Amino acid sequence: MIRVVCALVLALATSAEAQPRNDAQTEPRVPGTIEGTVSTQNGAVALPGVVVSVRDASDREVAQQVSDGGGHFVVNGLMPVRYHVRASLDGFETLEREAIVPAGGTARLMFDLVISAVNEHVDVVAASPTFEAPTLATTEAVAASEVQVISPGQGVPGALRLMTGVIEVPGGDSIDGGRPYQAGMQVGAATLIDPATNVSRMPLPAGALDSVLVLPNPYEVEFGRFSSGLVQVQTRRAADRWTFGVSTLEPALRLKRFTVANVTGITVWQPDVEISGPLVKGRIFLRQSAQYHYQTIDIPSRPETELKKIEWFSSLTRIDSTSVPLPRSARSVTSACAASSSTLTVACGGTNVPSSSCVVTLGT
User: Apex CA 332: angle with CA 328 and CA 338, to 5°?
Assistant: First the structure.
């Protein structure tokens, strides 16, 4: 009997202690407020436009306000817990404070922002290019063997006709829409243009060519500010054995107007001759090329007997020397380039056969 009475007393006491606790848990939580001011210079200057961010314990932003003209801000409707309040403004260091919001009450904060230090340095970062290439524009190259098959005896003009970006216009060649005097021309490392007109007027023998390369300017050609492109001509070297050759001996015949087989003369005849070999075995090499060009043009608006005649002669002399004699198994054009060498080039030509001009270049 005594044990039953004691158990009832303990149960009543436990229920009496738990009743207020349950009442406290069911009591509603009243939202609170965070209020404050933002200033600088130890409160002397109020800062408007400051972004005030309120974050909870998990660093989640629950509210955001902007200070008014007097630097004052108010954030309402916050649950009574602990918050982190952050104030930030461009040109000032960000400041963060902690606020505990009471139920139905107000937590007051004051922010005094410090002016950010000015960094007197510049960071230069090179961005990786989207595409890497030796030049921005496409480069076109034509070998002499291709020119000899498609345009026999034409030389540099024939090679340029095979390139998409080069068009023949009155007075020269146009590269990507530029005028003839806006293009440069190089034979090896030497520039081959007339300084008065900035146009290359000297023809080169077709047999002397090794390759023709066109480097167009990637920028637009306008108002004479840029060169439209550069034509690079590479000439052939002599080998360590003597060779002799003659080509393009067959002339192109001119027919009488409106006939099929009535030959009246020659339209184009451009034979060229070349000789090359070693002057000193394994040390000094000579290559001599020459070409004669004869052309008659029938003008449809004039009588058939009145023809426009074009006649010129061109020659190119190239001398290569090596400081180290080549071994017998390596005496070839390609192996000569590997040794220390010098090149002397003499190019002569003109539109009138009796009078001509010459260009002498020396390269190492």
Answer: 95
Question: Is 210's pLDDT higher than 60?
Answer: yes
Q: Residues 106, 186: one domain? A: no
Give the DSSP per-residue string, 10-79. HHHHHHHHHHHHHHHHTSPPPPEEEEEEEEETTTTEE--S-EEEEE-TTS-EEEEEE--TTSEEEEEEE-
User: Residue 21's pLDDT band (boundaries 50, 70, 90)?
Assistant: very low
Distance CA 306, CA 293 (A): 19
Domain membership of residue 95 as a residue range: 30-113
- Say how far residue 92 (Cα) sits from the centre of its chain: 41
* Residue 157 burial (10 A CB sphere; 0-12, 13-18, 19+): middle
For residue 73, give the CATH number of its domain: 2.60.40.10
Does 56 have pLDDT greater than 80? yes
Secondary-structure percent of the chain, ordered helix, strand, coil, rounded to 5:
15, 45, 40
Task: Count other Cβ atoms within 10 Å, centred on residue 358.
Answer: 13
Rounded distance, CA 106 to CA 324, Å? Answer: 95
Q: Let me know: does 295 contact 267? Beta carbons within 8 Å.
A: yes
Question: Among positive and negative, which fits the CA dihedral 220, 222, 226, 232?
Answer: positive
pLDDT of amino acid 23: 45
Do 102 and 184 reside in the same domain of the chain? no
> Is pTM beyond 0.85 here?
no
